[in-house]
Amino acid sequence: MRDFIIAPSILSADFARLGEEVENVLAAGTDWVHFDVMDNHYVPNLTLGPMVCKALRKFGVTAPIDVHLMVSPVDRIIGDFIEAGASMITFHPEASEHIDRSLQLIREGGCQAGLVLNPATSPDVLEYVMDKLDMILLMSVNPGFGGQKFIPSTLKKLCRVRKLIDDSGLNIRLQVDGGVTANNIRQIAEAGADTFVAGSAIFGAENYQHVVSQMRSELAEVVAL
Ligand SMILES: O=C(CO)[C@H](O)[C@H](O)COP(=O)(O)O
Ligand SMILES: [Fe+2]
């Protein structure tokens, strides 16, 4: 059985009360903080930068902060997030001029590194960098906004990437991001994911603990992997 990680996306949190929201969602039983960085260039939306990451650390957040960079170019912002207290940093290959170099920059800074594949991006891009990855993130919506519907073809892609990871013998997490809910999390886990980003499904709920418990119960039903 894999260990499952739930990473709430703070994109759907109340930004005016961000520190408190992060405390509450972690107290509800989640594991990581998924931190969506959008630049209004690589994606048509604008969100959070390294100063906000630093502020969360100063506020007392000790949980891993999982920085999902949707910015282009990526390299010049990596150092700022390392300095701001990021734990892992993922980026989109289309947004980096030198994928191998960007991955190295992240690891050299002491963070875990990962690549993010958009729904239409082929897993072929992973082939020559597998040994430099701590995580692969498959987008199950097009990046840029929370609250979108899960794209079903992601399930087939998850199976393919799960096999790639298992065949490699490397310790790489397989994360899924976009439209994850308590209703589909089990099917997503059975397709191969071990790390689940959920924004609107958690922050849109009246009771965070209730929805996180529902997700955990669904994950407990996942047939032995
Ligand atoms: O990276 C993202 C969007 O680009 C977000 O992490 C993602 O959309 C999560 O939100 P939701 O669970 O509401 O779909
Ligand atoms: Fe994300």
UniProtKB/TrEMBL annotation:
Binds 1 divalent metal cation per subunit. GO terms for biological process: pentose catabolic process; pentose-phosphate shunt. Keywords: Carbohydrate metabolism, Cobalt, Isomerase, Manganese, Metal-binding, Zinc. Belongs to the ribulose-phosphate 3-epimerase family. Its EC number is 5.1.3.1. It catalyses: D-ribulose 5-phosphate = D-xylulose 5-phosphate. Catalyzes the reversible epimerization of D-ribulose 5-phosphate to D-xylulose 5-phosphate. This is Ribulose-phosphate 3-epimerase. InterPro entries: Aldolase_TIM (IPR013785), Ribul_P_3_epim (IPR026019), Ribul_P_3_epim-like (IPR000056), RibuloseP-bd_barrel (IPR011060). GO terms for cellular component: cytoplasm. Substrate binds at S9, H68, G144, F145, G146, G147, D177, G178, G179, G199, S200. Signal peptide: none annotated. It comes from the Bacteria.
